[in-house]
Structure formats: C-alpha cells, structure tokens
Amino acid sequence: MLVTTKQLFQECYGKYAIPAVNVFFMEEIHGLFSAAQKANAPFIVQTTPFARDYAHPEMLLAMIEAASSIYPDVTYAVHMDHGYEEHIFDAIRKGGYTSVMIDASHDRFDENVKRTRKVVEKAHEKNISVEAELGVLAGVEDNLTIDAAHSFYTNPQEVEDFVKATDCDSLAIAVGTSHGAYKFSGGQGLQFHILEEIQQRLPGFPLVLHGGSNVVPEIVERINAAGGKIKTDAKGVQEDEIRKAIPLGICKINIATDTRLLWTMVNREFFRDKPDEFAPTTPGKIFMEEYERFIIKKFELFGCTGKA
Ligand code: G3H
Ligand code: 13P
Ligand code: NA
Ligand code: ZN
C-alpha cells in the first residue's frame, strides 16, 4: 500500500524508525521491495535529483510502480530526497510521490521558511507530506559538496518557530552526521545533547536523520581487498547510536552510501574472481540478493520488522 510519510511517522514515532533508501537503478528497487515483503516492514523509497537525471524521473517512478505490483503486500512511501522547487513542483503536477523534501537549508532562516512554506501549501493540496531541513550537513550531497567549515548543527532554539511558520510534516536536522563514507573521521559521533534539546522543544514531531549509513567496516575491507581504495578512516553511524536516536524522535533514517558500497563490493569481487565473465546479469543477481539481505538487517536494527 502506498502511503504518505506522515502516516508512517504517526505509527512509528518513538518506537521504531523507517529506512529511507535512495535508489538509482532496477536491481536496488527489486532488492528493496523484496526485502520489505519478506520482513513485513514499512519503508521509504527515495530519489534524488541526481537519480532523476541519471535514470529519468518517469523511468524511476515506472519501476517503483511495477515493483508495487510484483510485491503487492508492502507498505511504503515514495519520497523525493533533497528536492528543489523545480523538481518538487514538477512532481506535484505529474504525481507518483507521496512525500517531498525541500532542501532550503543552505539559505538564511527567513528564506528557508519562505521557500518551505510555499512548497508546503502546494504539496498539502495534493496530500503530499513535506520534509524540511534546518542545519547543514558536511559531505557530498547529490552533486553539492559542503566542507566541514561550512556545515553547522541545527540550532534547537530555532526549531519551534520554524515548524510553526512552515507547517512542514517532518524536520531533517544536522546533529553530527554527514553524507558519504567519512562521517565521523574526527570521531565526533552523533550529538545527542542537541537531539535531546530538539525533541524537548518539538515533542512528538517526526525528525529525520540524513547521513544514516553505517559504513560497514567488513564491506570497506572487502572492497579494498578487491582493488578498491576507500580510505581507512571511513566511518558511519554506529548501531547503538541508531538505537539511542529512535526514542529521541528520529523517525526516518536516510541510506545511500551503504548500498553504494555494497554494489562496489559485489562487483569488484565478482570481476576479480571471474575475469573471463562479462554478463551484467550475473553480478546483478548476486547484488539483488545481497541487497535484500542487507536491507532486512536494517529493518531489524531500526525495529520496523513486522510493522507493515
Ligand atoms: O544526499 C543524497 C544522496 O546521498 C546523494 O546521492 O549518490 O547521487 O550523491 P548521490
Ligand atoms: P548516507 O550518505 O549516510 O547514506 O546518507 C544518505 C542521505 O542522507 C541521503 O539523503
Ligand atoms: Na541540506
Ligand atoms: Zn541527505
């Protein structure tokens, strides 16, 4: 069943989190829907503007729709990740998404409010949920690179005014994560004191964690053993941090880096071990199966297994 993120968050708040997985191609969509059907877990399938440029928005949405009839028992939302007005208004006109993110987090507070408010007005007319963002994460985000000096944590003193003024349905916050494989290279970890203060000021309001990948050390080691050169200070959000963040209001956890690392591992190992092979479908099949297993483990960690 296709639902909004607002509906998913009403069920999960404080108890479990929903994985929001970025997809770019067919094998990921199969793996994600198949995992959800087996685990009976709710999920969010999301696309960035980069993914839309790569595959074409119509291709992505058609594949997602096809997956929903191949795997009919799943409960899911279709979300636009890191959207700007041009993508969002196009999506509102053409349909397919039940949720959008307006990423105006790089603007000043007033401008962020103004842009978010306008998106909320148009989206709510079509029963589409809106995720907004306050604070700036470091790292690579689609094709925008933010260095550490230009990133900043969400200011808890601004969150109530922001949510009231915009009427957004969920809020992405910057509490120490970054996009990509090098989140906690300095060892800083999630800033729980900031998260706690945000929850106190917005009790019951759904919060979103971007940069939610774990960056599994075994996967990084296997990539490097198969010829990759991922730097060894790669580090992600730890499992105990995820468990601790859920009762503090984190309802949606975004994942892109982890599945990209998984793809890299499968393909590097495959072509290292079978240098005479050239059929994309053989590693593609292995990837779909590995992906499904990987997502089922995320459902377990986030507590959403059996909750669809
Ligand atoms: O922030 C959004 C995604 O993590 C970035 O997607 O893989 O195209 O950079 P990407
Ligand atoms: P990761 O880079 O940790 O996978 O984060 C993805 C993300 O936040 C997409 O919006
Ligand atoms: Na942002
Ligand atoms: Zn993000």
From TrEMBL:
What positions does the entry give for Zn(2+) 2 binding? 103, 133
Q: Name one GO molecular function term.
A: zinc ion binding
Cofactor(s) annotated in UniProt: Zn(2+)
Keywords annotated in UniProt: Metal-binding, Zinc
Q: Which domain of life is it from?
A: Bacteria
Q: Which InterPro entries match?
A: Aldolase_TIM, Class_II_FBP_aldolase, FBA_II
User: What's the short name of a Pfam family annotated to this entry?
Assistant: F_bP_aldolase
Name the chain's protein.
Class II fructose-bisphosphate aldolase
